[in-house]
Amino acid sequence: MGVKLYGVPLSPNVRGAMLGLAEKGVDYELIPVLPADFKTPEQLALNPFGRVPVLDHDGFVLYETQAILRYVDQAFPGPALAPSTAHEAARMNQIIGIIDCYLFKSWSGDIGLERLIAPKFFGRPSNLEVIEAAVPVARNCAEALEALIAAPYLTGETFSLADIRLMPHFDWFRLTPEGETILAGKSKLAQWFQLVSERASAKRILQQ
Q1: What was the pLDDT predicted at 122?
Q2: Phi and psi at residue 207, to the nearest 5°
Q3: What average pLDDT does this structure show over 177-188?
Q4: C-alpha angle 11-108-185 in degrees, rounded to nearest 5
Q5: CA 154, 134, 101, 123 torsion: positive or negative?
Q6: pLDDT digit string (tens) for 109-136?
Q7: Cis, peptide link before residue 79, omega less than 30° from 0
Q8: How many CA atoms lie within 13 A of 10 on its CB side?
Q9: What is the pTM for the complete model shown?
Q10: 208 pLDDT above the threshold of 70
Q11: Residues β-bridged to residue 49
């Protein structure tokens, strides 16, 4: 059966899973599916919450991007994507928590979706009220990450799951007017993204 990844490549969460698989050198089949497609019992068995990405590895089905990334790192050979030191590992977990709890919704779920997806794919104007409500949290996330970064990567010397988790959200957010304003002057974040953008996985996936 091999490895199957269900989702849409445009989604930052799906791209995060794709980046993790690419970094580990895993061959996988991408099966395009939208959250709205999760309707039948068979489809809902993949994820009862109707979200993507979903990973199927030889019948072992897993959802939630963070869980998928941690599994891929442990289940497949290749470079380790988790730091070996306690401090870096703790910082990785902290940053992933920030992304999952606060950044994903504000940067991508609200601002990114309304600015980048709604006009082009939904055929409607951006909801400015949703965007305005998301800006304070989005700004707080950027300021927190700028303060936490330990160069060259987010946690220090190790390219980790935290970098993979943030890359596709940053890539979306920087293309929005709000992202451009909020990220202005965040020199450490800018240097970080310039560095990770040169990775083969980023060139292959983020530039699609």
Answers
A1: 86
A2: -95, 10
A3: 98
A4: 125
A5: negative
A6: 999 999 999 998 889 999 999 999 999 9
A7: no
A8: 10
A9: 0.94
A10: no
A11: none
What is the full DSSP assignment across the chain?
--EEEES-TTSHHHHHHHHHHHHTT---EEE---GGG--SHHHHHH-TT--S-EEEETTEEEESHHHHHHHHHHHS-SS--S-SSHHHHHHHHHHHHHIIIIIIIIIIIIIIIIIIIIIIII-S---HHHHHHHHHHHHHHHHHHHHH--SSSSSSSS--HHHHHHHHHHHHHTTSHHHHHHHTT-HHHHHHHHHHTTSHHHHHHTT-
Write down the residue that tokens 């970064």 correspond to: 149
- One-letter identity of residue 191: Q
In the Cβ-directed half-sphere of 128, how many Cα atoms lie within 13 Å?
1
Q: Are 3 and 21 in contact (CB under 8 A)?
A: yes
- List of domains in the chain: 3-75 (3.40.30.10), 86-205 (1.20.1050.10)
The pLDDT value recorded for residue 89 is 97
The size of the chain, in residues, is 208
pLDDT digits (tens, 9 = 90+) for 12-70: 999 999 999 999 999 999 999 877 676 777 777 778 887 889 999 999 999 999 999 99
